[in-house]
Amino acid sequence: MELNWDEINLIIKEKSSKSSYMVKPEEMEPENLAVIQFLINEVYRFPDKQKTVTDSGAQLRKYLTGKYNELDGESIERLVHRFCFLNR
User: Fold this and answer.
1) Residue 38's pLDDT band (boundaries 50, 70, 90)?
2) Which of 11, 56, 84, 88 is the most exposed, having the fewest neighbouring CB atoms within 10 Å of its CB?
3) With a threshold of 0.90, does the pTM exceed it?
4) Which pLDDT tens digit goes with each residue over 3-17?
5) Long-range own/partner contacts, residues 11-15 (CB < 8 A, 24 or more apart)
6) What is the mean pLDDT of the chain?
């Protein structure tokens, strides 16, 4: 299956507030969630063994940047904020 990275980046940005926090996955429309579910699963599986939330965010940011170079920086930041900073 070919991923449409423009669509993925757009969904992440559209489902974010002005303060750049993404809505919770359970608050997303099913069709949008289906498109980015693989990223959400990836983030949830990411090992969080850091002592501080800042370290955890830095590690997740580095991981996503290295693995998904098609994901733009703003999308990565929104994922990090939603799943690192808001979930702690």
Assistant:
1) very high
2) 88
3) no
4) 899 999 999 888 776
5) 11/35, 11/36, 12/36, 12/75, 12/78, 12/79, 13/74, 13/75, 13/78
6) 84
Q: Which two tokens stand for residue 45?
A: 């599986």
Residue 20 — left, alpha, or beta (φ > 0 → left; ψ -120 to 50 → alpha)? left
Instruction: Count up the domains in the chain and report the number.
Output: 1
Hey, is 22 helix, strand or coil? Answer: strand
CA distances from 16 to 1, 3, 23, 37 (A): 26, 21, 6, 16
Q: Whole-angstrom Cα distance, residue 37 to residue 56?
A: 21
In contact, 84 and 60? CB cutoff 8 Å:
yes
CA distances from 11 to 4, 56, 88 (A): 11, 24, 24
pLDDT band at 45 (very low <50, low <70, confident <90, very high): confident
Tokens of 78: 């929104």
